[in-house]
Structure formats: C-alpha cells, structure tokens
C-alpha cells in the first residue's frame, strides 16, 4: 500500500514532469516562430533587393509626379549631344501634330527658343514623334496633356538634354513662386532640375499656375486647343486627376516646317 508521503512524492514528480514538458514545448514553438520570422525576413530582403535591382526605388523622379509638376517620370542619363544648330533663328516654325484625336498645330518662335526649336525640328525630321502616345493628362491643379515620350511611359527621351529658354516670358512670379501658363501654351517638361528637357512637352488646355521652370516655346491654334480640351473632358483612364487619358491620343505624324 502506498503511503501518504510516497503519494505526495509521486504527485510532485508528475507535476515536475508536466512542467518540463510544457517548457520543452514552449522552446519548440519559439524555435518554430524564429524560423518562420527568419524565413519571412529573408523573403522581404530578397524582394527589396529585387525591387532595387529592377529600378523600383531608383528615386522619386521614376515614380508618378505630383499633379503640379509637368515632368517626365524619368530622365535617362544623356548619352548624346544635342543636334547641331540647323535652323534659321530669326524665323518662326510650325509643329503640326496629326493625332488620333485630331490635328494640333502650334507655332514656335526660333528667336526666343532656338535650342528647343532646333531640337524639335531635328527630331521631327527623323520621325521621332511618329506613332507615339500622349501618355499623361492632368485635370486638377494644372491642366495639361503631356506628349513626346517615344516609350509612352513617361520615362523616355531623345538621349540628350537641352537648356532651358525663355523662362521670363510669362512675367514675374507671385509670392508662391509661380506664374500662369495660359491655355494654349506649349512648354517643355523636365525632371524638376535646370537643363533637363528632352523631347517631352505639355499642351496647356486651361490656365495653369506653375513655377517658371518650363520652357514655353509654342502657342496652340484654336482648332488644336479644342482637340486637347475634348480629350481633357473625358478625363483619365482610371478617373484619377493625373494619369493616362481615357481617350487615348497617339501622335500619328509630327512635322516641323518653316513659316
């Protein structure tokens, strides 16, 4: 027969064994959690490495810009020199855009923006703008349709940059450092830094307040402005204030001629 002391010792031993089992199980669970967390961390690190390698975190300029900045989403490092001057810098030139939405023409003043006009004439003569998309429409804050990217993504350009010109044409900036780019203005997009214009440009369809940092180099004719306004009325493809136009616009042919 088991004595009361033996019974107490047996119960104490069983309790101790249960405690040891619980502690062992807790250690196993802890190790499993650590393994899972370690694996998850490895996945996150690998993902981040992949994103960086893929260019996702290569800087804000490669992401969508704020709606008050008519800038290319990226500007590749220039690998070429701008074309040699080959225009009459005392003349006026017309850029005729045959687009899927209608014809848009604007006059360019070579006397005020010789580098810009020379670049656009050189590019147009090579068919650079043919079959390219106007990739971006902004419908709030500023009111612009942006074109001139051969990739149609906001990341393309001609492989070179041109200097800013004619930046004082729109008057003295207000207290916010802005001037009004009037409806009908055509101006160069850039990365937000001086001298980073390439081939992307924006068509202003409604007066827009902007810093005087974007070369104004053209004036859209009345019929062309109506075409851009109609594109803007349809809004963007996803209903946002800044994005691809709902009614796609393709420049089928871009031609620059001397007046």
UniProtKB/TrEMBL annotation:
Residues 1-32, 59-86, 236-259 are annotated as: Disordered. Residues 1-24 have a biased composition (Basic and acidic residues). Residues 99-256 form the PPIase cyclophilin-type domain. The chain crosses the membrane at residues 34-57. It comes from the Bacteria. It holds the Pfam family Pro_isomerase. PANTHER family: PEPTIDYL-PROLYL CIS-TRANS ISOMERASE B-RELATED, PEPTIDYL-PROLYL CIS-TRANS ISOMERASE-RELATED. This is Peptidyl-prolyl cis-trans isomerase. It comes from Streptomyces cirratus. The lineage of its organism: Bacteria, Bacillati, Actinomycetota, Actinomycetes, Kitasatosporales.
């Amino acid at each position: 027969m088991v004595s009361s002391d033996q019974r107490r010792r047996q119960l104490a031993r069983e309790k101790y064994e249960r405690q040891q089992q619980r502690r062992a199980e807790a250690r196993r669970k802890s190790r499993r959690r650590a393994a899972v967390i370690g694996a998850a961390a490895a996945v996150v690190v690998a993902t981040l490495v992949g994103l960086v390698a893929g260019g996702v975190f290569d800087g804000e300029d490669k992401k969508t810009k704020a709606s008050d900045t008519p800038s290319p989403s990226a500007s590749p490092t220039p690998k070429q020199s701008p074309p040699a001057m080959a225009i009459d810098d005392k003349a006026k030139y017309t850029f005729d855009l045959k687009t899927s939405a209608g014809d848009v023409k604007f006059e360019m003043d070579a006397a005020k923006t010789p580098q810009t006009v020379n670049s656009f004439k050189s590019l147009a003569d090579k068919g650079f703008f043919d079959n390219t998309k106007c990739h971006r429409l902004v419908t709030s804050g500023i009111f612009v349709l942006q074109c001139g990217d051969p990739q149609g993504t906001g990341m393309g350009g001609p492989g070179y940059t041109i200097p800013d010109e004619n930046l004082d044409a729109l008057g003295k900036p207000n207290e916010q450092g802005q001037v009004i780019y009037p409806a009908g203005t055509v101006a160069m997009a850039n990365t937000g830094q001086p001298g980073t214009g390439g081939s992307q440009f924006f068509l202003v369809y409604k007066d827009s307040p902007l810093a005087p940092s974007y070369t104004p180099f053209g004036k859209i004719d009345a019929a062309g402005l109506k075409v851009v306004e109609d594109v803007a009325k349809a809004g963007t493809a996803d209903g946002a204030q800044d994005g691809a136009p709902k009614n796609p616009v393709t420049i089928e042919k871009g031609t620059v001629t001397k007046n």
